[in-house]
Design brief:
The structure holds two protein chains of two kinds. Chain A has eight helices and eleven strands. Chain A is an alpha/beta fold. In chain A, α4 crosses α5, α4 runs parallel beside α6 and α6 packs parallel to α7. Among the domains of chain B are: 192 residues, no CATH class; 163 residues, no CATH class; 182 residues, no CATH class. In chain B, 50% of the residues lie in helices and 17% in strands. The chains are: A alpha/beta, B alpha+beta.
């Protein structure tokens, strides 16, 4: 069975599995997402694409547990996250999901190091272990020299690196990126794109939302098209880069 | 360039060819709109959304309701405390002189004719009056003077009916004073008049107040014939107002002309209005500093919190203001928009608060009128206008200042100001907090207030005010309780046995030696009697004091009575006396000094040593000693009362009943000590005003945290996205106010102690007394530390609602906010 065919029903080995997910913000309006069923395998890079207002970010929010579906199930890392309460969802996110936002969403009144440390501290990691992990990530991402700086003083690319480090500090199975290069110039965007590819090469599962086909083609093994809240043609489509059967 | 010249095609619209310049968006046939109507329609449109900001509107309404109600009550109390007796005396046409006369000595016409004497401006009477023993629920209610009057009104002594109706039939009585509740008579209660041929039951149909206490109760004139005590001489009451009655000499001159106009012996007793004025005036004077302190705290608090909430509400809209400016609203329109958005809920809150404050004032002023003995008091009309008008003006001013500022800012600056606090603020504190070994939500929360120092300071001030009010209230309650117990000796001397005396100029006659002996025997025969002494009073002359000094002599042990000492000790040796503060002030003496007294007509001076200064509020110098030290005072003519102390567990009311039963028709009667009503009222007011101030402070905190939560909702979304749990969010948000609350508590505790001490000393000064240190030392350090937690309680309670909202908000929803 091809990956495209599997998406209609999902695979038992998928890290992410959505089954019949609908999200409606108002009962009288059209749903933002309608009857989505799809899966993302462990170690895969999948790009969610679609025009503005198609429901891409809504889908990402549901996978991250930032929002709850109106109906259907969302399973991530073997956990039915649509059935979890807010407290359990927060714990789940801290341990299993890292999120990278288009506009970085760093906390301006915390230093770079404190921004990176925060998820580990919230998850209850020991002080020493959290600092060691943060230091390792800052060095790996080339922003060790900015650890005591505040986000306002950093360039866009540096801020996104900080955001990536923060997303990775708890070693999550899944990394979600919502338009990770959307606020960056093309050169910086390519830098970040390469970084994400390196992470995936090391085994990180990555789902990224983008409206840029070139980005999807360059970095994602598979593209999931969403139009008007539905999967296009009901199926996901493999891309050229790293497509897996 | 026309459309054709530029190569574009202008699409013709029907009907607009004659419309002149095209009006974009105006549609076919639209004309440009100008003038006030257009200006207002823009403002109206831009003001839309008040209902969308329900929470903000509700907070504004609630804060202004509490603030205006506090202001209304405070102003009402201030007005009521400003010469209440004088105002009531004028309003009720009080009697300058109340006279007891013998109807057998003159005719009714002769009595009535005195109303036309030169110098008499108004006259009422003659009213039949009698003094009877009245019981309530089987217990002696006391000897009461009852007067027969057909109606409460009249040219003199317009009695103020505070509840029920005037007696209009047999078996009815209107009691003097207000319904005291707490087990005392209420409307419908049955009072039994004893000591008659047969007991007469009277039903309480009303409560009324005579400003000069012309009677303890009123019945119909026809009832009086039933109530006359067998063997008691008949008596009538005459009431006069004179053209000149400002001084005792003038009143005496007026009475002299009345007495001269009547046959000899017709006037048996009379009393001056000045005695009542002095008595009520000293009560009012004592209350005034306390009322002023609390009214000012309430008013300041109301202004501070309303100002904070309103200016914060506008500042929180800066971003929207910037957007409105960017689409073309002028600064004037921006100001109008925001005055409108704030103004409508503010108006609702102010009007509701005025009504609420008036409603609240009814029971409060009812009690204070009772304490002042002045019938009914109301919030004056000027207070009902000033309170809401003033609060609305403050509201609009608080809104105007930031709105004008926003109007002057460029659109970009307004948007930027509204989005986030200035960069760099609080960063160092965050770094410091990150290094602390505290749970991360706690350290994040404690550091957050430093990003908005101005808002934090205002919040701190609100919490400090609220906590100060609460701690001050608790302290003043304790202090006044001590003063009440000490002033009235209510706990140590629960029973007095005294001669019936309902007119303040002196006893109606001196009981016989046998009657004295019978009374003494009635007291000592009671098994519950633990202590007793006889108290005598007379004027003495003291070297260095021009006026006479009222001296009290105790025949028997007196230390058990428990007079509170400011300095020194209670006399315990021959030749020692104790004095009050006025004595020391007038004489220039101090505790330990000796002085010389002249008792009565005795020419032999008595040298005494001042052993102590006692707490005894009075405008006159007083002196206390043993009958042995003050020879000549302890005579039957100077007798005041027996003071009785009971054994532990004994019931004062049962004791009083037993003694009175044994005394029978004796001129003496056992009664409980009176007075202290002022303290009861003050203590009740303390609780009420403190609660209002604390609630207003809590609302102020709620508003601040709500504004901050909304400012930081996006940050809260980030925290949740990276794994902060709802409980951690609540902790973080609550910690925003913990830091300011701890500081506020540290300020409030000593401030409340100082305020309590200052208020108590001010009250004591107006009562012409010093206070024992124990009255102000009501805050043991451990208790004070605990009380300062009031600040934390106010802050945490105020923060709970917005903290819960922040915790409940979905991360995706919060992240969408900008």
């Amino acid at each position: 069975m091809s990956r495209q065919q599997q998406d209609a029903s999902g695979s038992p080995d998928d890290l992410i599995s959505l089954d019949g997910v609908t999200k409606a913000y108002q009962a009288s309006a059209a749903p933002a997402l309608a009857d989505i069923s799809m899966g993302v395998a462990d170690g895969e890079v999948a790009a969610i694409m679609g025009p503005s207002g198609s429901g891409k970010s809504t889908l990402l929010n549901l996978i991250a547990g930032l929002d709850k579906p109106t109906s259907g199930t969302v399973t991530v890392a073997g956990q039915r996250i649509d059935a979890l309460g807010e407290s359990a969802l927060a714990r789940f996110r801290a341990r299993h999901v890292g999120i990278i936002f288009q506009f970085f969403n760093l906390l301006d009144d915390l230093t770079v190091q404190d921004n990176v440390l925060l998820p580990a501290q919230l998850a209850g990691a020991s002080r020493r272990r959290a600092r060691a992990r943060a230091g390792e990530l800052l060095a790996r991402l080339g922003i060790d020299g900015q650890r005591d700086q505040y986000p306002a003083r950093l360039s866009g690319g540096q801020r996104q690196r900080v955001a990536i480090a923060r997303a990775l500090v708890n070693t999550p199975e899944l990394l979600l990126a919502d338009e990770p290069t959307g606020a960056l110039d093309s050169a910086t965007g390519q830098e970040i794109g390469r970084l994400l590819t390196e992470l995936n090469a090391a085994g990180q599962t990555l789902v990224l939302v983008t409206h840029d086909p070139a980005l999807a083609t360059r970095y994602a093994a598979r593209t999931i098209q969403i139009v008007d809240g539905r999967l296009a043609d009901g199926l996901a489509q493999a891309t050229g880069a790293g497509a897996r059967a | 360039m026309s459309g054709e010249e530029s190569g574009t095609r202008t699409i013709a619209q029907p009907g607009n060819a004659a419309a002149g310049p095209a009006y974009r968006g105006g549609g076919a046939g639209a004309r440009p709109r100008r003038g006030a109507g257009h200006w207002l329609s823009v403002v109206r449109t831009a003001s839309g959304g008040v209902l969308r900001h329900k929470v903000q509107s509700v907070v504004i309404i609630a804060v202004l309701f509490i603030s205006t109600a506090s202001a209304t009550l405070g102003l009402g109390l201030l007005s009521a405390s400003n010469s209440p007796f004088d105002k009531a005396f004028a309003a009720q046409r009080g009697a300058d002189a109340k006279v007891a006369a013998d109807p057998a000595r003159a005719t009714t016409a002769q009595f009535a004719a005195t109303g036309h004497l030169a110098g008499v401006t108004a006259f009422a009477g003659p009213f039949a009056q009698t003094t009877v023993q009245v019981d309530f629920q089987g217990q002696p209610w006391g000897p009461d003077t009852l007067v027969g009057r057909a109606d409460p009104g009249g040219p003199v002594d317009d009695v103020d009916l505070s509840s029920g109706h005037w007696a209009d039939g047999p078996g009815q009585i209107v009691l003097g004073g207000t319904s005291v509740g707490g087990g005392g008579p209420v409307l419908g209660s049955a009072m039994t008049v004893t000591g008659l041929h047969q007991p007469v039951t009277l039903t309480v149909v009303g409560f009324a107040t005579s400003v000069t206490n012309t009677a303890d109760g009123w019945v119909t004139p026809g009832e009086m014939s039933v109530l006359e005590t067998a063997g008691a001489p008949p008596s009538i009451q005459l009431l006069y107002r004179f053209a000149s009655a400002a001084t005792q000499a003038q009143v005496q001159a007026g009475m002299a002309s009345v007495s001269k106009a009547l046959p000899a012996g017709a006037v048996t007793l009379w009393g001056s209005w000045l005695s009542a004025q002095q008595s009520e005036g000293s009560n009012a004077a004592i209350m005034e500093p306390f009322i002023v302190a609390f009214a000012l705290i309430g008013l300041i608090m109301a202004v501070l919190i309303a100002g904070n909430v309103i200016s914060g509400a506008v500042i929180s809209q800066y971003q929207r203001i910037g957007v409105l400016k960017s689409i073309g609203l002028t600064p004037a329109q921006v100001v109008a928009v925001y005055l409108g958005r704030i103004g409508w809920p503010a108006l609702v809150g102010c009007l509701a608060g005025m009504a609420g404050g008036y409603a609240l004032s009814i029971p409060v002023l009812h009690q204070s009128a009772g304490a002042y003995g002045v019938g009914q008091q109301h919030v004056p009309l000027w207070a009902l206008v000033l309170a809401p008008g003033g609060m609305l003006a403050i509201t609009l001013l608080a809104a105007l200042v930031p709105a004008l500022r926003a109007g002057r800012l460029s659109a970009v600056t307004a948007i930027a100001s509204g989005r986030a606090p200035g960069t760099g603020r609080g960063y160092a504190v965050h770094r410091l907090a990150a290094g602390l070994r505290l749970p991360r939500p706690v350290s994040l929360g404690l550091a957050a207030p430093f990003a908005r120092p101005a808002r934090t300071l205002v919040t701190l001030a609100a919490i400090a005010f609220g906590a100060t009010a609460v701690i001050f209230a608790i302290g003043l309650h304790s202090s006044l309780d001590d003063a009440r117990a000490a002033g009235g000796l209510t706990s140590t001397v629960p029973v007095l046995v005294e001669q019936d005396n309902n007119i303040g100029t002196g006893p109606s006659g001196v009981p016989s030696a046998a009657q004295f002996a019978a009374a003494t025997s009635a007291i000592t025969a009671q098994p519950a009697t633990a202590h007793e002494n006889a108290e005598y009073g007379d004027n003495v002359q003291v070297d260095g004091i021009a006026q006479g000094v009222q001296a009290q002599a105790f025949d028997g042990p007196s230390a058990w009575m428990g007079y509170a000492l400011v300095t020194g000790h209670w006399y315990d040796a021959p030749g020692e006396v104790d004095v009050n503060t006025v004595f020391l002030t007038d004489s220039g003496l101090a505790v330990g000094d000796t002085t010389t007294l002249y008792v009565g007509s005795a020419t032999t001076p008595v040298t005494v040593r001042i052993a102590g200064e006692i707490f005894y509020p009075s405008s006159e110098p007083r002196l206390f000693g043993s009958a042995q030290t003050l020879p000549g005072i302890a005579t039957e003519a100077n007798f005041w009362q027996w003071n009785v102390g009971l054994k532990p567990g004994a019931s004062p009311s049962a004791y009083i009943q037993a003694v009175n039963a044994r005394l029978g028709n004796s001129p003496f009667a056992a009664t409980p000590p009176g007075g202290g009503q002022f303290y009861v009222i003050a203590i009740a007011l303390i609780g009420l005003l403190s609660l209002m101030v604390a609630i207003a402070a809590g609302l102020g905190v709620l508003n601040t945290v709500l504004m901050t939560t909304r400012d930081r909702v996006h940050d809260i979304g980030i925290f949740k996205a990276i794994g902060m749990r709802p409980g951690q969010v609540m902790v973080m948000v609550t910690c925003w106010v913990v830091g300011p609350a701890v500081i506020a508590g540290a300020i409030a505790a000593p401030a409340a102690v100082l305020l309590n001490t200052a208020t108590l000393h001010a009250m004591a000064a107006t009562a012409h007394t010093a206070v024992p240190a124990s009255f102000t030392n009501v805050f043991p350090v451990p208790a004070l530390a605990l009380l300062s937690l009031a600040a934390l309680a106010i802050a945490v309670i105020g923060a709970l609602l917005p903290a819960a909202w922040a915790a409940r908000t979905r991360p995706a929803t919060a992240l969408r906010a900008e």
